[in-house]
Fold these 3 entries.
Entry 1:
Amino acid sequence: MNLFSYIKSEQAVFMKRGVKMKIMLDAGHGYSTKGKRSPDGLREYEFNRSVANYARDLLQEYENVTVYFAHSDLKDVPLQERTDKANRLKVDCYVAIHANAYGNTWNDAGGIETYVHTSKPLEAAKLAEKIQRNLVISTGLKDRGVKTADFHVLRETNMTAVLVECGFMTNRQEAKLLRSDVYRKTCAEAIVKGIADHYNLKKKPIQPPPAAKGFYKVQAGAFKEKKHAEELAEQLRKDGYNPLVYFEK
């Protein structure tokens, strides 16, 4: 194992001990990125940012987790700026979210794939496998496996980094899914489950609702005939209770 892989491995073990964790989500590309859209006009960034938003909300349900975005809705953030931000903030995990494409016309290429750097960092590979498995199970799409690539966001980050491809914009059926809010939530849930399982994240305890102002009342019965009310009251007295019979119009 090289030094880079060792650092990432030790980092993951450290995080599993319950220390505060910083996660960066990267919705790939931007509104104005040329060519990153389906043949019928779906912009990849629309899908990517939606999944990132859902994933952020889900991750915030876990203890000791802070989520950052590498992207922006205001501009197309350059790749160097994204990785510089991640390194400056010293985040522990970097997840780039994308939708795939094969050419620029409709075709049959389809499925889910997840990438790690060509150096095959151990912890990144383990995280990628968990995310890939959850995405395939949740979406039901073809399993294209965990792959390696020399993508900038995988090469220039100093932390565990993976890139997920959640379906093909050039596949008619999958493009329909990519437009679906349900599918976007499904992808976010699968990605977060993979992260949570890998880092052993714990959900925040559910807080009880605030106490209601006023009084709580218990009514044992309501009758049109007074004698029936008195019969129930007598039975309750025998059982050790102190009932009150009153008439209400």
Note: The chain has one domain: 3-199.
Entry 2:
Amino acid sequence: MASFLGAFRAMVREDLDAAMARDPAAETRADVAFNSPGLHAIWGYRLAHRLWQRPGARPAARLLSTAVRGVTGVEIHPGATIGRRFFIDHGMGVVIGATAVVGDDVMLYHGVTLGGRSMQRGVKRHPTLGDRVTVGAGARVLGDIEVGDDAQVGANSVVVKDVPAGAVATGVPAAVRFPAVPGSDPYDALFAEPAIFI
């Protein structure tokens, strides 16, 4: 238990650092810790996911995730796999399905859905996001598809096919293109791609 608490504290610190780095409105770590529903949802998910890994505790994991959804407006299934330094800006309306896989340093805006396109049980139905992926507000990433490392998904886009690493996907259905300057910093590229925010 002591090792779990130490690891959990380290994750909390990392998540706070990620929030401070990605949220220009964040003034202090305390402000973010107390007032960020996205962070509260992530922390609730981390506890629920730990419970989910013990089959006898799965009902408790679902209850915890339901309570977190009620408080934050963010629904993350405890079976999802989420990496380090994950950040959800604003939070409200985010849905992450049971078989979704999210890499490290990923950022989602409000209203994002990482959803399924199949009703089949026992198979992977939700997307896999690589490392350093950014998904704009209201975007829908649907099905067992892959969004590669450093890719960006524009606001309100609907993505139903793989997105290569470093690409930008915008529109309904999403069209994929590559930034004008290959190898540019993904965070800086956000400002060159207004469709990420629109």
Note: The two ends are 45 Å apart (CA to CA).
Entry 3:
Amino acid sequence: MVPIRSLGPQHRARIAAHLMRLSERDRYLRFGYPATDEQVARYVELLDFERDEVLGIFNRRLELIAVAHVAFSAAQEYRDCAEFGVSVVGSTRGRGYGARLFDRAILLARHRGVRMMFIHALTENVAMLKIARNAGATVHHDGPESEAWLELPPAGLDTHVSKVMAEHFGEVDYQLKKRAHQFWGLLADVQEIRRGVQDGRHQAAE
């Protein structure tokens, strides 16, 4: 399993840092236009963590290397619909992170009663459309843009159990990485202090 963690308002800075790291082309594929830093910052600022689901995969330095946004409809008549978007840092692409995030998104969507998952992507975004097709989605091309949709079965007991297990696994992994990150930071501070003491001793001996 790939540890995936649900993100909240406290992660806005990390989400922004992740999106800012994307190359110009990757931003273009993610948003459908060459988003500027200001537009990316505005997008992150407007994320609705109460209505939507934002998922992330962290590396050992607690940097987000992949982020998915599952946007649920605010309109009552479309409450059974959701849209999926994902971004993966170029250096970690090809490891299946996008597909894993899509699987988790489907699990969460089913749990919330969603019956249709939509993906809006540029036709040239081959990786995203491949994820959709592999999941069984219907893809419709309209010039430079494509629409994919996937019908989801109703949630059952297995959906609930899988959701709980996935959330627990992602949270435990994040806390372990956070603890390791803090420890290495502490160790670096101790080593810096030791170097300062040694330098002080050398100066005193001279």
Note: DSSP finds six helices and seven strands in the chain.
